[in-house]
Write a structure and sequence with these properties.
Length: about 130
């Protein structure tokens, strides 16, 4: 999505309004013949997870309504936005895995902490020393 086409002041409004507590979502199943009480219980627990996730989706949808003046984009624009968000999500996962591996300690800024000098390209060392 074109970052220059955002509504002015959207950040403050989103901070105030896009709270998942502002949404109520209920997901339930119709009676299903052949489902045991234990299976029904397990299904209900899983549907609570769907509710929690859907509440977050609703809050994020509201953020988009506040941030952008329109939802009118081409398929290509939506796919480009999705691709960008997917890359961001993968980056977050990688950074979280790195933090977990470090025991949640802040990273050191020595490249040798991450890998050996042997793995660095000559161009890396020419630039960073």
């Amino acid at each position: 999505m074109d970052k220059q086409r955002t509504n002015p002041g959207w950040e403050e409004r989103a901070e105030r309004l896009c709270d998942p507590a502002n949404f109520v979502v209920e997901v339930t199943n119709l009676p299903l013949k052949g489902l045991t009480p234990a299976e029904q219980y397990r299904l209900c627990k899983k549907l609570r997870l769907v509710e929690q996730f859907t509440v977050r989706l609703a809050a994020n949808m509201l953020k988009g309504v506040i941030k952008y003046p329109s939802d009118e984009m081409t398929v290509e624009e939506w796919e480009a936005a999705e691709e960008d968000d997917t890359v961001d999500s993968i980056n977050y996962r990688l950074l979280a895995a790195d933090a977990r591996q470090r025991g949640n300690q802040p990273p050191t800024f020595s490249h040798t902490h991450v890998h050996s000098d042997r793995e660095c390209s000559p161009r890396y060392h020419a630039f960073w020393g």
